[in-house]
């Protein structure tokens, strides 16, 4: 409903139905976007869908791990594969130019909670399945940067900060960042990404997050 409201105000915004855990839905979404783009390619794919469950280490389950890994890690893998032809087409439209988000890029929204070195917020919340899924997403981002560089596609993992969203604010502690602050920061980072940044893990202020 929110997307429909936005679309009514911004005619260039085209909502496309997508369930990231359903391969058929992913393929249909990619086909729909391809139709809308006509002969043009897709410059930027942002894999943003994610979920978490407040499970402690002792209470983690196979079902939770599977569900969250499917959304947070497998979803971005399949989406990137499905949209790869459109990203390649965009990159081919700018031959010779350096890697950037205006050429062709995959941005995987990750989290410093998945940083093996930082383990951000471990004390208040274990969220083990979420952390594992984001650590795996970081590896996927690194692999994509190596595998897709020859096609002219930049790939990064981006930590948006601890943000006041339904998921981020679900616990008893209040996140420090508003959605607007996080988005403004990320847009600034995306506009500055270049060849040297592909395969990196950055935060919403452009700072390097340790793996």
UniProtKB/TrEMBL annotation:
Q: From what superkingdom does this record's organism come? A: Eukaryota
Which InterPro entries did the record assign? Fungal_SecMetab_SDRs, NAD(P)-bd_dom_sf, SDR_fam
Question: Pfam family of this protein, just one?
Answer: adh_short
Q: Which Gene3D superfamilies match?
A: NAD(P)-binding Rossmann-like Domain
One cellular-component annotation, GO: cytoplasm
Please provide, alphabetically and separated by semicolons, the GO molecular function terms listed in this UniProt record: oxidoreductase activity
Q: What is the recorded name of this protein? A: C-factor
